[in-house]
Amino acid sequence: MVEEVKFPRCQKCDKGMLLPLSDYGRDGASIRYKAWVCSNPECGFNIRIDNGEITFGRTIGQSYK
Q1: Residue 28 lies in a domain
Q2: Is 64 within the bounds of a domain?
Q3: Among 33, 35, 56, 57, whose CB has the most other CB atoms within 10 angstroms?
Q4: Which tens digits make up the pLDDT trace of 8-56?
Q5: Going by C-beta distance under 8 Å and a sequence separation of 6 or more, which residues neighbour residue 64?
Q6: Cα dist. 1→8, 45, 60 in Å?
Q7: How many whole angstroms separate alpha carbon 55 and alpha carbon 43?
């Protein structure tokens, strides 16, 4: 059985869906849902947790390591 996953609609643009992103912490532990980003590229809304602080609206871009 496949479970349907519904993501919340973006409250900023009302066109995209907020998609969850995960990351890894300093010690390699998985951090689920560290950030949420709007699926609408024209919107760019995002909300994230950085060192225990919630930030939103910062410009996002590709990271190169």
Answers
A1: yes
A2: no
A3: 35
A4: 999 999 999 999 988 887 788 888 888 999 999 899 899 988 878 888 8
A5: none
A6: 23, 33, 36
A7: 16
